[in-house]
Amino acid sequence: MSPPPTDDLWCRRFHPAPDASRRLVCFPHAGGSASFYFPVSAELSPDVDVLAVQYPGRQDRRKEKGVDSIEELAESVTRALGGWDDRPLTFFGHSMGAVVAFEVARRMEQAGSGPVQIFASGRRAPSRNRDERVHRRDDDGIVAELRALSGTDAKLLGDEELLRMILPAIRSDYRAVETYRSADGATVQCPITVLVGDDDPRTTLDEARAWSDHTTGGFDLRVFPGGHFYLSSRAADVMAVLAEHFALTAVPHGA
């Protein structure tokens, strides 16, 4: 298969797999970048074609304005993925990325396509809101949050100049996800599998189970030892969950 046209600002394809019958789209967390999913791409290629979404305001897009809202971000990503639905799509989003994946799936389904599965990691259900105000903190307060969640490379947190360069994008991400409110009764048709750490300060098991209210398809909950970034220490377990999914949804060669 030849690759479809793409907006390369948004979609990163670290290990192109043009002959793969399925495609995984990965959505980063607040402050995260597409490169967070480089190991996932390396692991699944060439059986699965992996795309990682790159939000504005970071890495090679650092000169662009950051995210304004989850809804606007979802609209942009939906447009960017328009040429990539030539084979079955699976979405994986961690933290903020989980709600972005959910909102993109809603928009794609409304247009007549959409993913076959959403993996929502480390995020409470869209209908479960908290009064969080990290985006209102000063720079030191945001850095403290990043350290507490252990989701940012320690080398980056120690590089003052680089850290100050990306803080505006991180603040924008937090503003977008902390002010996000899903539409009443918002659902998708595809199944949702939720993955969460059993000691995640940002998502309780009850908040994770509430994702079941947001799908008319199947629902599954997988709980792992760890905190908000459980998937860093449990990468092999997460990859096993994805491998299980792709094994069950294998498309016959030439189909």
UniProtKB/TrEMBL annotation:
The keyword Hydrolase applies. GO terms for biological process: lipid biosynthetic process. Residues 25-242 form the Thioesterase TesA-like domain. Keywords: Hydrolase. Pfam families: Thioesterase. Belongs to the thioesterase family. This is Thioesterase.
